[in-house]
Every structure is written in structure tokens, then in C-alpha cells.
Amino acid sequence: MYLKMQMLVKQIAPSSWDRLRFYTSRVHTFNQFQLQETETSNVHDSVLARLGEMPPIFPNLRQFYPGSKLSGSNSLIFFLTSTISEAALPFLSIPPPNVRDLGPSLALLASKSPHIRSLMLTANVAYSGFSSSLNCFANLDSLFVSHLSHYEADFIQSVMSLTKLTDLTLRLVSFSCTGIRNSFPSLKRLRLHGSGPDLCNFLRVISPSVLQDLDLRWSEEEDSQTIEAVFNAVVCFSSTLRVLSIDHITPILLPWDDDAVFWLLFKSLFQLTQLRNLSYGISMSLTKKQTAEVASAWPHIEILRLNAFLWKGDIPPVQSLAYFAQRCPNLITLDYPVDLAVPFDSKALPPRAISTHPLRSFHCTLDDDVTNPVAIALRLYLIFPALKFVDGRGDRWDEVQAILDTYHLLNGMRS
Questions:
Q1: Global confidence as pTM
Q2: pLDDT (mean) for 316-321
Q3: What CA–CA distance (Å, rounded) separates 38 from 282?
Q4: Gene3D superfamilies given for it (predicted)?
Q5: CB burial class (10 A; 0-12, 13-18, 19+) of residue 274?
Q6: Predicted confidence band of residue 94 (pLDDT cuts 50, 70, 90)
């Protein structure tokens, strides 16, 4: 059962408490996310305290997502039970009013709800005693930490002591892995945002035989040497990595006129032969020849998104997408730049679909308008007869979609 917290910002008559308790004893999720921060701050302390009277009004909670005010309130203890398995402190990144340290709240959570398996910490305040509190969550397998500007020196070491952790997100200004070796024996999914050197050092202490899903973003300007070191650390997971996302938040200090630098960085990822899903946000130019190499790199790829493209040199023609049809038998989603200047033979009609290639979605990442929607739709249909969804960054892709729908309708009538 799920309780909408709108009822808690209103006055509750004494005669209504017993009836309320009947329902709230069946509540499994307490979530203030749907309320605006002004609404959650209007919950009177007396109401929060009354909710926490013994016996607990929420004795069977499993998911606990308090707002900012409750996260830093003395009433927090009244909501905590040993049944909670998922929690956030607070659920939104807005820090509690007049609270500079959520360490005591985290300690309460660790004491009263030690069986938590998933924990989110997002407030831009201090969490004093973080290490000792975190050690109480022996069953923690998912940890999300973001926006923290103050944390203790042994912060990373305490995180790495969580041997059952399988899912970790760290979005921090900086973090140090000095003196740490071979940690996270169970980590399968990692989302890491930080400076290039921090990303590189962190990746080097992770067991290379477990990690399957990796999301990297750097938040500082980086030179080619630093970025190359990060890529070298990534390819160490070649035997296990299935999902990879690489992007940047701030500028990259690379020679933009040297295409070879960008291509060599990207090409190093060809060593990750087990990839099923790749999202790549670093700009580079591509040619038809390089498209053939990309299509041959990952035989098991299902989702391929090359989201940033430098428009110069030879742009891959639409026909070059045939390489993916020939060499990527499992591909279902493709984001890729192609030249939209396609000649059209007015006598050409869509033949009956023969290919069984499963591609369903194509997104053109070239920032250009479609000049001939019929020609583009026909080319794409001939290469990927199962294609259902097309779009791009320029104009008139809605016309391409409508024509593609017509082709499917005609083929359906023929069969």
C-alpha cells in the first residue's frame, strides 16, 4: 500500500487517528517526492511526532523517501523500522532548512534500519560519522551518493568496505583512492562522475572480473593524456563489460583539428568485444570506411548510440548503414550520423521485405535537415525492413516517419 503525503499537511482530528492507523499499518512505501518542498515544510512537527507514537504508525515500511524537513528533524526516529529495505536521506537534493550536518540522521537510520539494501544520499551538507554509519549496513547492495561537498577522508575506503555492493553511483567533486587496492568484489554496475585522474584511479582498484555496466562522466577540463589513461583503465574490463556510457560535462582539451586523436580514443573501445550497449558522447568525425570498422567491432551489440559528431571531412552515406545490417545481427537501436543528401529514383518502390534484421529504431545524430524525405525513408527501409521509428536533429523527420509507416502498410497488404 502507498500513502500519499498530502493528507499529512492538513489538521487531523483525534477521532481520525485510529482509522488512519488502520490504513497506515498496511503502508509499505512512504514517499514525499510528489510534494513540493513548500508543502513538506508545512507539515507541523506535532503531526510528525504523533505519527511516530508507539506503536509505530508505519510498522511495515519497506521504502522510505522523506523530504528535506523530515530528514533533518527530530521526528525522523519515529518513522524508522527494521523492515525498511530502501531509503533516501533526503529524497531530494535540497538540504534541510537550518541543517548543516545529516550525520546524526544517517546514524539513526543505520541503528533503526540496519537491513537496508538500497541507500541514496543526495543533500549538499556534511554527513559526519559517515564511515561508522555505513559499516552498519551489512546487506547494502546499492549506494547512490551525489552533491556531497563535505565528507571525511576515509569516505571512499568505507564505501569500498561494502563487500556485497553490486550497484554504486558516485557524483562528487573529488575523491581519493590512495592506498586502496582490489576492492568491490561484487560490483556489477558503476556510475562515476568526477575528474579524469579520480576516475582513472578508481577504476584501477575494481576487480576486473565482475563489472558489467559502467557509466563515466568527467567534470573537469582534461587533456588527451588523462583521457587516454581513463580509456586504458576501461578496456581492462574487456571480458565482462556489457554496458558502457562515456560522456563529459566540461570541455575536453584535445586538438579539435586532429581527427586521428578522437578516432584512436574511440577505437580503443573495440577491445570490449562483449559489449551489448554503448553510448558515446565525445565528438568525432566518421567516414564510410570507419563505419565499416565500427560495425565489425562488437558482434553482440544491441544498442549503439554515437551522440556527438564533428561535421567535417567525409560524412558516412546512408548506404553505409548496411554494414550494421550485415555485421550486427542483434542491433535494435542505432544513433549514428549519415549524409542526408540522397538522390531519389522516382521509379523505385519498396520491395517486399526479405531481411530479418531486427533494428527497430534509428536516430540521425547529424545536425542537418532532411531535403528528400521519400529518398531517406526508402534507403532506410531497404536496409532495415523491420525499422519502426526514425528521427533526427534536423527538420522533416516526421515526414520520413510517415512514409516509413506507409511502406509497412503496403507490405502488410501484400502479404
A1: 0.89
A2: 92
A3: 40
A4: Ribonuclease Inhibitor (3.80.10.10)
A5: middle
A6: low
Cross-strand partners of 392: 364
Please write the tens of the pLDDT for every residue from 289-303.
Answer: 999 999 999 999 999
Q: Which amino acid is at 193?
A: H
Of 314, 336, 313, 312, the closest CA to residue 324 belongs to 336
Residue whose cell numbers read 540522397: 342
Cell 524525405 locates to 373
Nearest Cα to Cα of residue 143 among 154, 153, 156:
156
Length, in residues, of the chain? 415
Cell of 7: 493528507
Distance, CA of 92 to CA of 80 (rounded, Å) = 18
- Asked whether the predicted pLDDT for residue 148 surpasses 50, the reply is yes
Residue-wise pLDDT tens digits, 23-62: 888 899 998 876 655 555 555 565 655 655 566 678 899 9
Give me the percent of the chain exceeding a pLDDT of 90.
48
